[in-house]
Amino acid sequence: MANKTEKPTRKRLQDAAKKGQSFKSRDLIVACLTLFGVAYLVSFGSLVELMGAFRRVLEDGFRQDMRGYAQAVFWLGLKLLLPILLLCVVASALPTLLQTGFVLASEAVKFNLSALNPVNGFKKLFSLRTVKEAVKALLYLMGFVVAVAVVWHKHKVLLFSQVHGSPADMAMVWRKLLLSMVLLYLVCIVTVLILDAVAEYLLFMKDMKMDMQEVKREMKEQDGNPEIKSRRRQMHIEILSEQVKSDVKNSRLIIANPTHIAVGIFFKPELSSIVLISVLETNQRALAVRAYAEKMGVPVVTDVRLARRIFASHRRYDFVSLDELDEVLRLLVWLEQVENASVVETSQAESSDKASGEPVRILVCRGHETITETTSYDRSNCNQEDQDPEDAEAVPR
Q1: Which of 17, 43, 240, 328 could form a disulfide with 22 if both were Cys (CB 3.0 to 4.6 A apart)?
Q2: C-alpha–C-alpha distance, residues 353 and 344, integer Å
Q3: Percent of the chain with pLDDT over 90
Q4: What is the pLDDT of residue 9?
Q5: pTM of the prediction?
Q6: What are phi and psi of 30, to 5 degrees?
Q7: Could you give the residue range(s) of every CATH 3.40.1690.10 domain in the chain?
C-alpha cells in the first residue's frame, strides 16, 4: 500500500464497480429509507377496512368459510403492505444507484473464501474505517439524545394529556410525535451524514490507489503495446497494392482530410494539361496513403472541405471537375512557387558559401521555404516546429 501513490484510473474504478467495490454511503441510504418510511406510516389511513373483516367474522359467529376468509385477509394485507414495501425498495435502491453511477455489480455474487480469513478480519479491527465508525456512533448517540430532549421539552404536555384521550386521539398524538422525533433526529445528524460520506469517499479512493507498474500495465492494455503500435503503422503501408503505391509516388500532391480521406492529384504539364485524380482512399487505407506519400517525398496538404468534395463527386482516375479545378490549381501553383523559391534560395546560398569557403547545410521545411545555414539556423522561417535541423532531406506536407 505504501507504493500505491497514483490515483485510480477510470478503468480501475469501472472494474471495481463490477465487483461491488464502489463508493456507497450506507448511512445516507438508511436515512432516506427511514424518512420515507416514517412519512408514509404517519400519512397512512386507518385500519378500518381490516377491522371490518374481523367484525364480519364475529357477527357471523365464525360460520364463514375459512378458506374464503383467509384469501380475503391475505389480499387485504397485501393491499396494505405492498405500497410501503415498494416505497422502501425505491427509497433504498435509488440512492444506491445514484452513488454507483447505475453500474450493476455483475461479478459480486461469488463465493469468496478470502472473506473467511481471520487475518483479514483482524486487520479490519485496527483500520481507519473502524475508527471512523466508532466516532460516528458516538455522534449519532449524541444526536439522538438531543432530539429526545427537544421533543420532551416541546411536547411533554401533549404526552401527559393522553391519559384522558380516546384511542383515536392517542393514535393522532403518537403520529405527530413520531414524525417530529424522526425529522428532528435527521436534522441533528445531517452534518454527520455529510462528513461520513466525504470520509467514506476518501477511504474508498485510498483503497483504489495504484502503483506505477499497475498504471503502465493498464495503459498498455488500453492503448496497446508500443511495439505493436509501431507494427500497425508499418502495416498501413503494407495494405496498399503496388498499383496504389505507384500512383501515390507519381502524384503531384496528396489532399488529406486528415485521417479519413486521401486524394491524389496527378499533374504533369509536359505530358498533359489535364488534372487527374490518381488516388482516392478512405479510413485505414487513407492513413496508409498519407504515410507512404510522406515516405516517398510527395507533398501532403490538409484541406478538409476540398478533400470531402472531391471524394463525394469523383472516382479514381477521373478528371477534376470544373467546380473543384480552381482550388486544385491554386494548390498546384502555390506548391510550384514554394519549390521555385526554395531552389533560388538554395543556389544563392551555395554561391555565397563557395565565395566564403564555408560548408553549407540545407534544411527543407515540409510544405514551406528552404533554409540554408552555416553555423546556425533560424527556426522562425519554418512553421514545422518539430523539424530536425540535421535532416538532409524532408518531405513537403
Answers
A1: 17
A2: 14
A3: 12
A4: 82
A5: 0.49
A6: -65, -40
A7: 230-381
Q: Maximum Cα–Cα distance for the chain, whole Å? A: 132
Round to whole Å and give the CA distance between 270 and 290: 26
The dotted CATH code for 230-381 is 3.40.1690.10
Q: Is the pLDDT of residue 100 over 50?
A: yes
Q: How many residues can be counted in the chain?
A: 397
Question: Could you tell me the pLDDT band of residue 112, with boundaries at 50, 70 and 90?
Answer: low
Per-residue exposure over 24-48, b if at least 16 CB sit within 10 Å of its own CB, e if not:
bbebbbebbbeebbbeeebeeeeee
Give the Cα separation of 370 and 346 in Å (integer). Answer: 7
